[in-house]
Amino acid sequence: MIRHGYGECAACHTDPSGGEGLTQMGRVQSELLLSQAWSSRPELTSNAKTLSSLDEPDWLRLGGSIRGMSILDLPHGGAPADLTAFPMQLDVYSSVSIGQFRAGASVGYADVPLASPHLRAAQVFQKESGPNMISRSHWLGWAPSDGWLLRAGRLNLPYGLRISEHVQWVRDATKTDRESDQQHGLALAHSYARWRWELMGVLGNFQIQPDAVRERGYAGYLEYRVLGELAVGLQSEVLHSKESIQFGRTEPTTRQAHGLTLRYAPTTSVVLLAEGSMLAATDRNLGHVALLTADYEPVQGLHLALSEEMLDSGNPKGQAPLVGAGKTTTGSWLTLHWFPVAHWDLQVDFVSRYSTTPTVQAQLHYYL
What we know:
mainly beta; 16-stranded antiparallel barrel; two-stranded parallel ribbon; 19 strands; globular
């Protein structure tokens, strides 16, 4: 949306830093600016409503996402092609706004694989695997005045670009994706004129056990919109746990990430997104992670994008460096993303990363 001069997220999303539920304005802009314009003068229709017909009361917003995923592993190193398909997201969410009171929650279904690196962190019932209820976020909030929101609950960590590709390294290495990396805590967000920021005190993810693996600390960002179509930001997180799932340690571990973001639209058709962070963790050498995306929209609703990423998570001290942990590894994403009508989008990615099987990923997404 930076290509249209929209720098802040709170106008269109119930989360002040973007993602998940849409406000009424978000639904309107989804149809008028995001979806393909099938006529020379796009007009607002009932598609901007929930389920294309439901008029909610002003204090209630309902939403949801159904996302199907297919992954084709291309032939590589003598291995044959392999195709898998699965439901990636089956969520409903809602938000309430009554006076200064705010609340939001999401509930979903997932068949959690054994030792899943992602979904287990969001599951409601403590099970090793199998069908489970998940809740990615749930919170209560207070908005004392325009531009301010204080929230308590399970929240997206306010760090980095709010993108949906949770396996891209800038999200995975910093553990700040919207898929399952949310944490419980207290967050204060504010937007005014060209500034927006959010700071969260992290108390841990209470949907995982034992308590020793729960991380505590802070995460936050500060962004300034230099021009209508240019925004630069700072971001930082420091999190500590008695044991580390991420690094497989049974000793106290502190991990850190500090970096920069950029969103820039040199023309209405082109948007550049960039993010880079330095990574640090107990008993590991310094690492880094970065992403650069160039998005081209030849016609409204159709996006062609190229993303280049790199990662060095930092090798354990005293151990030889490996590719990706002590030596920088790289990856490329070639993306076609189409929003044919309001509430629907189709995304196809060709992903090539060093020393891994190239894949073609296809997602069909219906959202409210």
